[in-house]
Write a structure and sequence with these properties.
Elements lengths: L7 H17 L5 H11 L15 H18 L4 H24 L5 H33 L4 H21 L1 H37 L12
Helix pairs in contact: 1-2, 1-4, 1-5, 1-6, 1-7, 2-3, 2-6, 4-5, 5-6, 5-7, 6-7
Length: 214
């Protein structure tokens, strides 16, 4: 069986796609806008069939959508309503961003990378939802604009790093995935669940020896 040809361009494109997908978890439209600008200026190569992303109408639409999204997330309580639809939207945007930049891969590997990119977007989006929930709980929503600003900065920085330093961004995404999957469940279910899990792991409690009562 002939091996799948995986070139350096394919690896870099996959890394760029995963990085942009991770950025979509912070803000849905920012990485798509960044990819469109990079492609328009010749910095980024688009996959066949995605050249429309670098057109002027696409840039105008993505720029408008980005401004509306950023403005909506600056409004307390509206940001939490947006979180209800942000996770599936982020996953779709992440898969779209990845599909637009993954080149020189056979269809099976390409769409496997696209699905993985959707998972990366879901992980970062889950982290933002969790952070906003904690902010709402601790500050009554007053600290949410700060969280939203940090998310915007993270989306911009992650998108830029994905385009210019894709391998570094790929490592950072993998580390975030490991941290989120290993640490966050314990925080979500609280210390009581952690103590119960530890007790179950150590076995049933020991009964002190002594005279039996009738």
């Amino acid at each position: 069986m002939e091996a799948f040809p995986v070139t350096a361009d394919a690896l870099l494109g996959s890394a760029v796609g995963l990085g942009l997908a991770a950025a979509a978890g912070f803000r849905v439209f920012v990485p798509l806008l960044a990819a469109a600008i990079a492609a328009k200026t010749g910095v980024l190569e688009l996959s066949p069939g995605f050249q429309w992303l670098a057109t002027t109408p696409a840039l105008a639409a993505l720029g408008t959508a980005t401004l509306l999204e950023v403005g909506a997330y600056s409004v307390p309580w509206l940001d939490q309503l947006l979180d209800l639809v942000a996770t599936p939207a982020a996953m779709v945007a992440g898969m779209l961003a990845a599909a637009s930049v993954v080149v020189d891969l056979p269809p099976v590997l390409k769409w496997g990378a696209v699905l993985l990119a959707g998972g990366a977007a879901g992980v970062t989006q889950g982290a933002t939802v969790f952070t906003r929930f904690k902010s709402t709980t601790l500050t009554g929503g007053m600290g949410n604009p700060v969280v939203s600003t940090l998310e915007l900065v993270s989306a911009v920085v992650t998108s830029a790093l994905a385009i210019f330093l894709p391998m570094l961004t790929l490592v950072a995404v993998l580390l975030l995935f490991v941290f989120f999957t290993r640490r966050v469940p314990g925080v979500l279910f609280g210390r009581r669940a952690a103590r119960a899990a530890a007790a179950a792991a150590n076995g049933p409690p020991k009964v002190p020896r002594g005279p039996m009562r009738r």
